[in-house]
Every structure is written in C-alpha cells, then in structure tokens.
Amino acid sequence: MVLLWINSTVLSQSVWKVEPTSEVKFTIKNAGIIVEGKFKSFTATIKFDPEHLDKSEIQGIIHANSIDTGIGMRDRHLRDEEYFYVTKYPKIIFQSLQVFKYENYYIARGTLTMKNVKKEILLPFYFTPEGDNKAYFKCSFSLNRLDYGIGGKNLMMSDEVNVKIEIHASK
Questions:
Q1: pLDDT (0 to 100) of residue 14
Q2: Pair type for strands 160-170 and 57-63
Q3: Domain that holds residue 61
Q4: Would residue 2 count as lying in a domain?
Q5: What pLDDT score does 159 carry?
Q6: What is the Cα–Cα distance from 94 to 120, expressed in whole angstroms?
Q7: What CATH number should be reported for the domain holding residue 102?
Q8: Can you give the pLDDT of all 171 residues of the chain as single tens digits?
Q9: Rounded to whole angstroms, how far apart are CA atoms 142 and 132?
Q10: Contacts of 168 by beta carbon, 8 Å cutoff, 6+ apart
Q11: Is there a contact between 67 and 78 (Cβ–Cβ < 8 Å)?
C-alpha cells in the first residue's frame, strides 16, 4: 500500500463543494427523436487547483435510480435489469486517476463504472473561477451505452449517449 502525503494547506484551498444548482444531463436519439434526461441525485468530491494539478482528484457518484426523462413509465423501464438495473447497481461512479491541462481546458483521466463494468475514459472540462470562493466546472462527452451493458442492440435507439455535467461549486 502506498501512502501519499498531501500538503494540507494546498488541499484545503482546493476542495470544492457542489452546489444544488449543479446538473448531470444526457441526450440520446430514440426513434428519430432526441430524448433528454437527467440524474436528480449525485455527489462529487472535487479537489482541484489549476496550480497543483498533480494533487487534484475528482470523484463523482450518480444515484442511478434518480434518472428522470420526464416520463415515469420510461424512467421505471430504464431502472430495470435491461438498462441500469438499479437494485443491483445503484451507483454510477467516476474516479479520476490524473488531471491535466490541455490547450485551454482540463482533462480528468479516470475510471467510469456502470453496472460493474469499468472503463477508463477522458473527461474534458472547463474550469471558470468566479472570485476566490466560487467556480464553475463544465464537462461534455459522449459514450457508447453498449460498452456498459445499458440496453441491448436496438435499431431505434442510438448507441451513443451525450452527457453534460455542469457543476457550480464553492469553497
């Protein structure tokens, strides 16, 4: 086991608390129509300082049963075994392995776990400070739902899901 020593002053200055106005949203094409949805319940631990990226860490946990597409019957179906199987896999988890800067944005390289399938992904995000104690994190990416066993092959539904995460945070 490797123990890392982290300067507590740097860490305490870079821990961000997620505000309730934050959102995790997604879109997917189904039967030629763009379906929008969101997850209403999630948490995140964000240790981020652009001056100390080597000490930065991001973890996000989405409660899969909080999926909301605005249609109750569809939401119940998405919670079933064929899709998110929320009774067996209640959480979707992202854990960063590295955070680095690329051009004018940042990338969190990490592991995304859904339905017990773990895949390494890159999450590109923008960090916009608002004064000394508030910031805005904005992330947008796509993933293939089949890679995680979410639903089966379906000619009516796209395999690609677009995800947008908007985090309002404070220290």
A1: 85
A2: unpaired
A3: 14-170
A4: no
A5: 97
A6: 9
A7: 2.40.128.110
A8: 333 333 333 444 589 999 999 999 999 999 999 999 999 999 999 999 999 999 999 999 999 999 999 999 999 999 999 999 999 999 999 999 999 999 999 999 999 999 999 999 999 999 999 998 999 999 999 999 999 999 989 889 999 999 999 999 999
A9: 32
A10: 18, 19, 21, 22, 134, 136
A11: yes
Token pair listed for 101: 């800067």
> Is 48 domain-assigned?
yes
Cα separation, 98 vs 56, in Å, equals 8
* Residue 98, token pair as written in the block: 């590295």
pLDDT value of position 2: 39
Spatial separation of the C-alpha atoms in residues 130 and 133, rounded to whole Å: 7
In a domain, 1, yes or no: no
Residue 105 pairs with which residues in a beta bridge?
A: 102
Number of domains within the chain: 1
Q: How far is CA 18 from the centre of its chain?
A: 13
- Residue 18 located in a structural domain: yes
Element (H, E) at 75: helix 72-79
